[in-house]
Write a structure and sequence with these properties.
This protein has 509 residues and is mainly alpha-helical. The protein contains 19 helices and four strands.
Length: 509
């Protein structure tokens, strides 16, 4: 069984990795082309009329594509979560079509969108195409989707460990040995493919990331607070702009979002695209603090207007970029002040840039382990593990104090409300779904027989996976920690039933 899972993970990861490599190369070329485009428009303003016509045509095409396949709008991560946790249906072929066409068009206009979220959905859709042929049941098909999501992040960032953890921490929202094993093989396969075709150079190339001296650790606390505030702010801005855009038709909000790329491209080209160039600039910035602060504000606003329009594009890399600029601004500001033995040397600017990236991402997404692993993999060193952990968890604390909801969870709720509005109970169609969830240590159902648990209505435990084996339980079967329970949902309020089951098998806090 384990080797069968590994083989399926390799196949799914291979397909996902190949698709993401193509998408990643196209978006990178598009962002580079956009910088040249706006530089050309700055010296040939008469050509702006042609650019405006291209904007109108592109906005119409993108709006039509999104209307045809709504699941391919925005980041893509919430939609993958909806498939795995809420039983949404996914047309992999239409998602891939819209992601590649509309996403690449947005990249050529230099919109502030990341490729990581779309890469995760592309990986999930590509792996699902394999799962439709190789999976024996719905549970195995879901494992393919989760593995594809892990492979997508792995290929997008060349970060296989982060891809594995993201599949568990954010996409699946629980720990399952089967999912972990499949995600591991898929992520490693996708990482190998990305390295073969795109080289071994990291996506984000950092210079020397100096290890912090012990006396500088005191600055990790205010840095974590600052990164947490920045992450919380971008979280609110992204959701707020999406709400404002809701009062405008899809075509015109896309026109506005693309149109704003023109002044940004002419006046502040560093803010164009996902932000890889801006991260490198923030690490080595020698300009004034005022200019760095201006770039931070522009990037936050431009990312919010780009993503809020609903075009296919992610926020993963833009949030990391915003965190990097914030960390650079913090370090350079502190470096100008004299605190005696606690002063911050200039060679720590790059280090604080990296640490703030993890903090900002955690505060917005609420996936701390993934954020930590991602930064550690990008720097290629475990020396910074403790500073990264301190900043990450302080930023998470700040975000919790401010009652910031995980952005992908909010986006999923909004997507569900928009595409599947609530109906009257009598109008709800009779549908079925299957979900596999692990029983976490500390769950209230541990030690109870299946018949003694108050399961949601129209819900049945149809299989138990224990010790590498799967069997059909009876009413007296006692639930053990680490069991994976396979549930059948049928009838009304399937979404609510899934949420209730997830709460029952999760750890009791």
């Amino acid at each position: 069984m384990q080797w069968s899972i590994a083989a399926k993970g390799i196949v799914g990861g291979g397909v996902a990795g190949a698709l993401v490599v193509i998408y990643r190369a196209a978006i990178a070329y598009g962002n580079t082309w956009a910088i040249s485009l706006y530089d050309y428009l700055g010296t040939h303003p008469v050509m702006i009329a042609v650019w405006a016509l291209a904007v109108l045509v592109s906005a119409w095409i993108i709006s039509r594509l999104i209307a045809w396949e709504p699941m391919a709008s925005g980041s893509g991560i919430p939609q993958v979560e909806g498939v795995l946790l809420w039983g949404l249906k996914m047309r992999w072929w239409s998602i891939l079509t819209v992601r590649f066409i509309a996403g690449i068009v947005c990249g050529f206009f230099g919109m502030s969108l990341g490729r990581e979220g779309p890469s995760i959905q592309i990986g999930a859709a590509g792996s699902a195409s394999v799962g439709n042929r190789l999976a024996k049941n719905k549970v195995e098909n879901d494992n393919f989707i989760a593995a594809g999501a892990a492979a997508g992040l792995s290929a997008a960032f060349s970060a296989p460990l982060s891809g594995m953890m993201f599949a568990l921490e954010e996409v699946y929202s629980s720990f399952s040995p089967t999912v972990l094993f499949t995600a591991t093989t898929a992520a490693l396969t996708a990482d190998l493919i990305s390295k073969v075709f795109l080289g071994f150079t990291p996506v984000l190339q950092f210079g020397t990331i100096a290890a912090l001296d012990l006396h500088t650790y005191v600055w990790l606390i205010p840095l974590g607070i600052f990164a947490g505030l920045i992450g919380a702010a971008i979280n609110k801005m992204l959701l707020g702009l999406q709400t404002l855009y809701g009062y405008i038709s899809a075509f015109w909000r896309i026109v506005i979002a693309i149109g704003l790329a023109l002044p940004v491209g002419l006046l502040c080209p560093l803010a164009l695209g996902g932000g890889a160039n801006l991260i490198q600039y923030a690490e080595q910035a020698t300009t004034s603090l005022a200019f760095l602060a201006t770039i931070l504000i522009v990037k936050m606003l431009f990312t919010s207007t780009s993503f809020g329009s609903g075009v296919p594009g992610g926020i993963f890399l833009p949030i990391l970029t915003i965190g990097a600029v914030a960390g650079s601004l913090f370090a350079r500001t502190v470096g100008l002040l004299n605190f005696g033995s606690f002063s911050l040397p200039h060679n720590y600017v790059a280090t604080f840039t990296v640490l703030a990236m993890a903090g900002a991402l955690t505060a917005s997404v609420k996936a701390p382990i993934t954020s930590m692993l991602l930064v550690i993999e990008m720097t290629g060193s475990l020396v910074h593990m403790f500073p990264v952990a301190v900043v990450t968890f302080i930023a998470l604390l700040v975000s919790d104090i401010l009652h910031i909801d995980p952005i992908y969870h909010v986006l999923l709720e909004r997507y569900m409300h928009k595409t599947q509005p609530a109906r009257e109970p009598a109008a709800v169609e009779d549908s079925a779904g299957i979900l596999s969830l692990p029983v976490e240590l500390g769950s209230s159902v541990i030690g109870k027989a299946i018949r003694d648990v108050d399961w949601p209505e129209h819900t049945m435990v149809i299989a138990v996976q224990r010790g590498g084996k799967e069997f059909i339980p009876h009413r007296g079967t006692v639930i053990h920690p680490g069991d994976s329970l396979v549930f059948l949902f049928r009838g009304k309020n399937q979404k609510i039933a899934r949420e209730e089951v997830t709460a029952l098998v999760s750890m009791a806090y």
